[in-house]
Amino acid sequence: MRVLAAMSGGVDSAVAAALAVEAGHDVVGVHMALSRNRQQFRTGSRGCCSIEDAGDARRAADVLGIPYYVWDLSERFEDTVVADFLSEYEAGRTPNPCVRCNEHIKFEALLDKATALGFDAVATGHYARVVETPGADGAVRRELHRSPNDAKDQSYVLAVMGPERLARSIFPLGDFASKDEVRAEAERRGLSVSAKPDSYDICFVADGDTQGFLRERLGSRPGAVVDTDGTVLGEHDGSYGYTVGQRKGLGLGRPAADGQPRYVLEVQPTTNTVVVGPAELLSIDEILGHNAVWLADDVVRAGEWVEAEVQVRAHGAPVPARVRAVPGAGGPRDAMEVELTGRPLRGVAAGQSVVAYRGTRVLGQATVERARRRERSA
Length: 378
Prior knowledge:
The protein is an alpha/beta fold. The protein has three domains: about 1-195, Rossmann fold; about 220-275, Adenine nucleotide alpha hydrolases-like domains (SH3 type barrels, Roll); about 280-375, Beta Barrel (Elongation Factor Tu (Ef-tu), domain 3). It contains nine helices and 19 strands. The mean pLDDT is about 90. Pfam families: tRNA_Me_trans, tRNA_Me_trans_C, tRNA_Me_trans_M. One of its GO terms (biological process) is tRNA wobble position uridine thiolation. Catalyzes the 2-thiolation of uridine at the wobble position (U34) of tRNA, leading to the formation of s(2)U34. Its EC number is 2.8.1.13.
């Protein structure tokens, strides 16, 4: 196969490209330039896709003996991932930019461009497995599964890709059980990135100051912090800077009457108000998600409840639930209903990604529209 290897400049994507070459594929490496600032440098382990990363990717491609190119996707990244990040916070929701990046950049812009150029698949350094099983009609079914490396598993952020793009994706690191194994593989192959630190935080907020980034882009918008009765407890500089479940940085002038900590319960963008209250009011057991993407049509059928587990954070613990596909604005299966059947979850915010699993297999994904306690909706 002709395979386009996405090379970020890190050890994972370098080893993924090496394994694609070893598997006998005709491999071409490409680095995605996502920053508008061509002189941006890494700050320790923060951020990615910097000028140093492009150089590291080029050196890895040279060692592997494969062609290497840099594709400028900075405008697409700004207009989709960054714009979505800002608009979601502005609307009182909590986005996951890694999910949007996988959706709009890595498995839309990159994969679609690769297909147009005649490539059969894209290989990335994500930690997830693709399992091929025979379907009832004799055709091979490709399933997305968790990585055996629990600490690095990225199936949560990949669930948004959908079955068509999953069919054109390769994850060579799927069977690696630890990052140490990947680093050892890189060192054995003479790749200089073998000891390079992982990137973390939001790549376009390289200094890690998300609140500062939001203030710079959205400006100062003073408003009130209130309790559930509407009593004003303090002021804020912009409701966009708060998220459901937040405890620190509330700037309240006096403690609660019972002496217990208070948490953000709700962000109301229309009134620029932040509502706070006790932790027990954060517990929810019902979720409605929209823009659903389903990866298991053999398991999930419209309107039928399916026993599953759901996860609402990239490295959060899955909890027992039942899920079903229901009609939404985009079609008969555009929404996901979730009813938790075990313990409730706390701090689930609109805008987060909810992913349904059965064991290690990804069933589907949706963006949280509403999360609440079931007794309230009765």
